[in-house]
Amino acid sequence: MSYQNLYEIFDSLVGILLFAVIVGSVGDMVANSNAYTSNLRNQLDGVKLYMGTRNVEQLLQKKALHYFGFMLNNRHVDDKPIKRYLPAKLKHTMQLNIHQDMLKDVDLFKGSDDKLIYELVGKLKLHLFCPGDEICKRGDHGKEMYIVKSGQLTAMAEDNHTVLFTIPEG
């Protein structure tokens, strides 16, 4: 057996190994994608059953179904269970890594000290809103500040038909 034959055998084994790794990775990605979708669909089935047995009005049922459609299309992952398993310092560092660029892009915080951004990241809470959701209305006492990470926010007049202004991302 020559060196060329050994090289060919080695090269073939490496090729087979790489192929197996790639196929396995694709299989894992498909399984994870299906697990997310399957979990969300199970939750949706539970909500449908609950709404049906409790005779929830059609408009609210439609909003709930719209929410699950939004979650399926945008593949939102709830970070609360993930954060529960992390130590506080690591959790805060991870949040800083995820959100600091977004905060620095907000006009109010441009040029702010890194310490302020560090403190703000610890105060952030994720809120998801679907199109058409009412976040607040005239006369409400504001206790929160919202940063639009994706989509846009439209301020409507009291008649719910007249657009007063639109707030874009950031």
TrEMBL record:
Residues 108-170 form the Cyclic nucleotide-binding domain. The keyword Transmembrane applies. The chain crosses the membrane at residues 12-31. Keywords: Ion channel, Ion transport, Ligand-gated ion channel, Membrane, Transmembrane, Transmembrane helix, Transport. It is found in: Membrane. InterPro entries: CNG_cation_channel (IPR050866), cNMP-bd_CS (IPR018488), cNMP-bd_dom (IPR000595), cNMP-bd_dom_sf (IPR018490), RmlC-like_jellyroll (IPR014710). GO terms for cellular component: intracellular cyclic nucleotide activated cation channel complex; plasma membrane. This is Cyclic nucleotide-binding domain-containing protein. It is a multi-pass membrane protein. GO terms for molecular function: cGMP binding; intracellularly cAMP-activated cation channel activity; intracellularly cGMP-activated cation channel activity; protein-containing complex binding. PANTHER family: CYCLIC NUCLEOTIDE-BINDING DOMAIN-CONTAINING PROTEIN, CYCLIC NUCLEOTIDE-GATED CATION CHANNEL SUBUNIT A. It comes from the Eukaryota. It comes from Steinernema carpocapsae. Its main location: membrane.
